[in-house]
């Protein structure tokens, strides 16, 4: 059974049809990458999957449980976490404080907001483990606004991991990063355990082909093609609509 199943999804904005009959299945443990030209509807699809946006028609199931039409927190409850194209961090707080807040947000019922958070040993231990696991322990005291853009994007991924998701949606995780930061982020994604299923929007073809088990191409709001990376790489039509010839050759080099 697929972990995530999107069936015949439609979404429009004031008459503009942005997603048309989109069906997509992501198997448990898979690294599934969503590509497509600007405006193809990729982020809108993420917003519809996570419940950030209501859908017009269709369904979204996680582990066989229907979540379409339910509030956005349902996605978190069924084990889904996501990052956004733009950072959503508390810039004046430290890396560690941001992580504490992310952990608290995942399980608010475990915390009493009148008790100082540093009295929750379990919270501090969980944060320490994550910071060490993802090589941010040394930078835990840094104020987020003082981090490079790439470091901030990496922190976003770490915050999404704080909820210990079964399925993680990453929206252009390497956008705006330097080449070195892109390599670091790619390695981080590759090192994630297969217990975390990934659905990733990505434009950088080097990154796409180094992480994907399966690729879905979205074009004008429709699934144009879905298949193994070799299949997508070799498809002339995909080159025409998306790669414009040059980019894919660069990725093969
Ligand atoms: N809230 C909204 N209201 C109206 N139109 C929207 C809204 N969100 C997205 N759109 C439109 O929907 C279309 C798809 O946008 P979307 O951001 O999903 O594309 P994308 O494939 O993620 O593009 P990119 O790669 O540039 O991020 C675009 O034409 C966009 O202008």
TrEMBL record:
GO CC field: plasma membrane
Protein name (Swiss-Prot/TrEMBL): Urea ABC transporter ATP-binding protein
Matching Pfam families: ABC_tran
Domain of life: Bacteria
Keywords: ATP-binding, Nucleotide-binding, Transport
GO MF, one annotated term: ATP binding
InterPro entries: AAA+_ATPase (IPR003593), ABC_AA/LPS_Transport (IPR051120), ABC_transporter-like_ATP-bd (IPR003439), ABC_transporter-like_CS (IPR017871), P-loop_NTPase (IPR027417)
